[in-house]
Amino acid sequence: MTAGSPGDGRDRRRVYFPAPPGRHDVSRHGSPPRVVVVGGGIAGLTAATGLAERGCHVDVVERERYLGGRVGGWSERLADGTTVGMNRGFHAFFAQYYNLRKLLMRSDTALERLRRLTDYPLVDAYGRHDTFRGLPHTPPWNALAFALRSPTFRLRDLVRMNARAAAPLAAVSVPDIYARLDHLDAETFLCDINFPAAARHLAFEVFSRSFFIDPQRMSAAELALMFHIYFLGSSEGLVFDVARDNFDVALWAPLAEYLSGPATSTRPGTVDFHLGVAVDRIDTEGEGFRLADSTGATLRADAVVLATDIAGLRRIVAASPTLGDDPWRARVSGLATAPAFAVHRLWLDRPVGAERACFLGTGGSPPLDNISVLDRYERQATDWAGNTAGSVVELHAYAVADTTPPPRAQAELRNRLLMRLHSIYPETAAANIVGETILWRQDCPRFSPGDFASRPGIATPHARLVLAGDGIRVDLPVALMERAATTGWMAANTVLHQWGAAGHDLYTVPVRGRSVFLRALATRER
Question: Which of 8, 180, 365, 490 is the most buried (most CB within 10 A)?
């Protein structure tokens, strides 16, 4: 691995993993391999792209009637008949998401459908604000500047921190960090390093809950990896991009058009999409596979990429007794999901204050974790707000219940979210609700202490059956959407190797901490 240039990244120390060599079009000599990708989220679409660009015929089977998975978008109607865009809520496209951005560039070369924001402020229950605006890009000065200007972090707090215990934050390497910290929860780890409680709630709690889990139930290794990716391991910064339109319009419809169009020299393979179809069972058939779906149809494949959510993967494997061996099946069945979360979108008849940020993270204000003002950046919401002199606001409640609660509890949560919104943005209290939608979901992977060791990886007992997704183990410094995209490229590379085809390049933030001194301190601490 060597340094490389993944496009618009600024970090000269990012790591380049060159593609495995081989043929660039496996369809030139005989029939192309037929690969079924189960799941049309980021991981599945990435795998489909990687396979089609090497000449494979790909069938993408997606349970929903839209692409994008947890970053999907669709249309709904308000009570007055107005069509509006809808999705599952806020997603940040960070500059260090190299492999995801490479996917999006297939249909948007200059990434013009993304927009760079200037800040992501945080506020706690006492009204104290933190901001990422204007921070240095170079580690460790970015984290130091953030800490020193934070209203919840004082210089004496920095002196009191246990530097030896904190060294793993700056000396991350994968998978070593899991061997060192995956037995601990993030809350205990932060207490051990004497991280000030107020700053912990304002900063780390906001970030840990973006993994849809509370700090006391999140792996300390995942917290350290997150700190490495966004702070001490990368100089890309914490200011991010957002999609300029609803995800279906801005991201996935253009990519689907690229994949399903006529074959080209850069994409000799073809992709067929089967939406609103679930795979029920997979049986081995020689070196290949036979898939039965919810329509009663059967698909035959030379290879399969399982890129579903955790529940879908467990369900398919449980219904497919010829897949894998007992240890592998046990790993799959042992996968778990994070607690349930809610997304409450409101169409209001008056605007929020002009000074409000696009996004606001809220620490110590349960059940509210984030307020998004969609009409500040998303075209469909902007158009609606412009036509009605209103606003489109979204409230997020992460890790709000172990399971999706009954209707009465859901109604109580709605009222509490509205109370929090009115407290933080008082001008919304006088607004009438023209329309509202509340989504409840529990389909994000869990990253709790001890989970990493038993998590299945991309390879399976079958050479031509692979896994992809943000819940799949990968020994690289990636997370969230970037983990999904990275495993998608790697799954495609693994399948392509079976036919002697070239793979696809990968990029990541540095694979270990940047500071020689802190790495040495962490080594001495063992």
Answer: 490
